Protein: GTP-binding protein
Organism: Streptomyces milbemycinicus
Amino acid sequence: MVYGHSDMGRSHVVDPITLKILVAGGFGAGKTTLVGAVSEIKPLRTEELLTEAGRPVDDIAGVEAKTTTTVAMDFGRITLREDLVLYLFGTPGQDRFWFLWDELATGALGAVVLADTRRLEDCFAAVDYFERRGIAFTVAVNCFQGATRYPEDAVRDALDLDPGTPVILCDARERESVKSVLISVVEHAMMASAARR
């Protein structure tokens, strides 16, 4: 007997499947916010203050209120079902930290490319990265207050995405909105994986 349960009649405990999902996108798109909004554990964050020394390399046009930046990664976890756990790895957004992406991408099932329509060109590098490596991804358009809302098809055309790549409007601050994005990533990645077999 363990903890008062006998082997007879004991409910079956399921070992969950764990999947790795990357959260990428441009500087200031909301990656740290997205991971924090949905994580059931206190997220690991590697944020540092933006300084005057970084001004020449960190373009804050459009995100002037931003005071910190991720310098390595964000990490969070969410249980979508009893048998399915996602580990979320948020990538740094600036070019000078892209050398970390290859390590973070190792073993990833899929990715979220978080887009800010005020600086849409900032997510081109992430789209290109995942397309070149054959990693399935969903584009999640973070609907910032005051930003123009574009239809999903307009975003798809602007990013020149394959027709099968999901594009979803979301609010990176809202847990349910982020869960919908993550479900889309998992479903898309599973379908892409099955199609390759």
In short: The first strand starts at residue 17 and ends at 25.
